[in-house]
Amino acid sequence: MSMYGRDPWGGPLEIHAADSATDDDRSRNLQDFDRAALSRPLDETQQSWLLGPGEQKKKKYVDLGCIIVSRKIFLWTVGTILAAGVLAGFITLIIKTVPRHHRPHPPPDNYTVALHKALMFFNAQRSGKLPKHNNVSWRGNSCLNDGKSDVLSVIKDLVGGYYDAGDAIKFNFPASFAMTMLSWSVIEYSAKYEAAGELNHVKEIIKWGTDYFLKTFNSTADTINSVAAQVGVGDTSRGPAPNDHYCWMRPEDIDYPRPVYECHSCSDLAAEMAAALASASIVFKDNKAYSQKLVHGARTLFKFSRDQHGRYSAGGADAAIFYNSTNYYDEFVWGAAWLYYATGNSSYLQLATTPGIAKHAGAFWGGPDYGVLSWNNKLAGAQYCFRTPQRNQVDLQGQGSYHISNCRSKNRYSTIQQRLGVLATDIDYSIMPVRLGVHINCPITPRSFGTMIIKE
């Protein structure tokens, strides 16, 4: 059975009788349709209709200030760095702990050891305010009032220099000779010093001495009339008054005033100090300003030595007890030789090779120090300085000749004689004339270390 009615959408509305079933029937029919619908999967469109828009999973980030990176990437990066650090530390630990078998460096030869210890002696003898790198740990600042404590001294700053020996006296005469010899050794053997690792050290030692010498006179002037020759006193004949021989103590503990000895007629001292400054100027030729300062001081001192003839130890001076000078003509030759090498001024060469000066220096007669190089007699060293034809050789034939003889002198001169012998082995004496009007008439071999003897 069916019924027709009007369809609101424009068509007939057909109602079947079957559609008039009860509500219970319709409910059962809908449940069947629901089960059928649930039995097949829904596509994405259907799901979106039924469930609405889905929630998207948010990514986590780390803000590092300048950049923003993914938290996952950040954690991987930090982990990798930590792992690499741990691995590197582990490898380093293994390298440090595992014993390595390396061949030890050979010990230095005896001569190198002797050189180290000889130079250390100068560090131990330093006076004044010591540098931080001074390699003698038990030495400290000492005698910081030298010059100031003597009201009669014209020069008020005499801090520095070297003590002479176990006492604390500063004698400029032997000290300047020591600096000249050190400079000479550097000029001849700078490569050897460098190979031993001592070149900078020995140059510091020389500069410590020359800096002090420049304080002992007016080094900026062209003409002077006095030089400080000595600081401290050693004459004990006056009784137990405080002096550097009676009061044996550490220099650091000296608190008594120390007198200054000045001289106004001291050719030997001034010429020897001139030699020290001139030879050092060659050592420091890479420091032009300091080298020129040394040359100027050497010129001033040598002029003073020529203007005022006299021995620094004459007249009962304290120095006569310890370092008495017997002549000053050998210092004239010695100082002029080094000034010639430092300046190239031929007037110094002419003076050094003047036969009259050589004669007064003892070139043609014997004596207690005949042919021996020492702080008192530099003639042998000066003769050796004028040895090579490459240095504008001047030959004064007929004035005499000298030869090398076996060494039979006092032990305290042995190191100087060996020094001359070592230098002598570098030269072919059979073909080489020598200045000062002398010729060598016998060769030197390494075994014939000796002293120069002058003969007519």
Automatic annotation (TrEMBL):
BP GO terms, sorted: cellulose catabolic process
Ranges where the Glycoside hydrolase family domain occurs: 111-386
UniProt superkingdom: Eukaryota
Keywords, alphabetical: Carbohydrate metabolism, Cellulose degradation, Glycosidase, Hydrolase, Membrane, Polysaccharide degradation, Transmembrane, Transmembrane helix
Membrane spanning stretches: 73-95
Catalytic activity: Endohydrolysis of (1->4)-beta-D-glucosidic linkages in cellulose, lichenin and cereal beta-D-glucans
InterPro entries, per database record: 6-hairpin_glycosidase_sf, 6hp_glycosidase-like_sf, Glyco_hydro_9
GO MF terms held by the record: cellulase activity
PANTHER family from the UniProt entry: ENDO-1,4-BETA-GLUCANASE (PTHR22298)
Name recorded for this polypeptide: cellulase
Species of the source: Ilex paraguariensis (yerba mate)
Lineage: Eukaryota, Viridiplantae, Streptophyta, Embryophyta, Tracheophyta
